[in-house]
Amino acid sequence: MSAPASPTSRGEHRDEVDFVLTDDGTIITLIRVRGASAPTRGPVLLAHGAGMRAESFRPPAIRSVVDVLIDDGWDVWMLNWRGSIDLPPVPWTIDDVALYDVPAAVRHVTGVTGSDTVKVIGHCQGAAALSVAAAAGLVPEVDVVVANSVSLHPVLPFFARVKLDVLLPMFRTGEPYVDIAWGDGPEKGVARITRNTVRLAHPECKNPGCSMASFALGSGHPALWRHENLDSATHDWLEHEFGKIPLSWYAQMSLSHRAGRYVMVRGYEALPHRIADAPPQTDARFTLLTGDENRAFLPSSQHRTFAYLDDAQPGRHSLTQIPGYGHADVFVGRRAHVDAFPYIRYALGR
Ligand SMILES: [Zn+2]
């Protein structure tokens, strides 16, 4: 598809916000984003990562995935699932998001648009929740899943595993959330100790939010992006795009990395205890993406899910490892519209 004469930018987005009540009584939100003209193609739902929010998909200083989707004619819906930093903090797990938030969001979008199908794009734990919901047969309306970084098989780097094993007991002293915004907060006690420890461990960057994000979500310096992929405006902006991540999720990740796949922890009947033990209950076509320098979830995370999907439905799914990229720079990188988004555009349009 050729580029539009006048590409959409953040200042031209017009947002409509819908509140959605899930079956377990949680309020989540959907932001429908319009550009200068009405969409000509079907709905696309975006699900953000852990400790982030819908807004994280559209850094103001770059050509964002939202701009690109609008210019391609898609009807863009950004989801704030219950882990969004724009919603009141709750001790969420992937179980809750996959069973309640994803189906509620998909049904809201089909209800409002009249479309029978929805294409979904997820980053990090948004990608995992979408993938788990699809594989469990909870969202038959979803015909395309684009998942960045991780989908069904989280593989955590060594130091991230140490964090899970060492920090979990520490935080069990009563602090229910790791707050990435601790980077610049006035807190005392555990928050202050954590913040100062993180500063010592991450001398590579003076931005406290960047260092806390590295600490909380991965292993490496920095863990979530390669600095050379970010422009300075986006790097500064990212400091305010992260917030609380509950220990309930860290506990689930600890179990899941040991099992080599997501393990459900709530005991909901509609979800299998161990994801990917049985064939996927969906016809959706998966496009799995990851940066080859991903230090939050190793690229082998996506390789394992691809092997599982391809075994069940040979030749239907794809896996792309993007050279020179990490975890979140696949969406917030200054050249992501050139290096990463073409894979997303192809997945949606084929
Ligand atoms: Zn940094």
Automatic annotation (TrEMBL):
> Residue limits of the AB hydrolase-1 domain?
43-167
Annotated GO molecular function terms are: oxidoreductase activity
Keyword Flavoprotein attributed: yes
| Keywords assigned by UniProt, alphabetized | FAD, Flavoprotein, Oxidoreductase
Q: Which cofactor does it need?
A: FAD
The record's annotation in SUPFAM superfamilies points to: alpha/beta-Hydrolases
Which top-rank group of organisms is this from? Bacteria
Family note? Belongs to the GMC oxidoreductase family.
This protein is called Pimeloyl-ACP methyl ester carboxylesterase
Name the species this protein comes from: Microbacterium thalassium
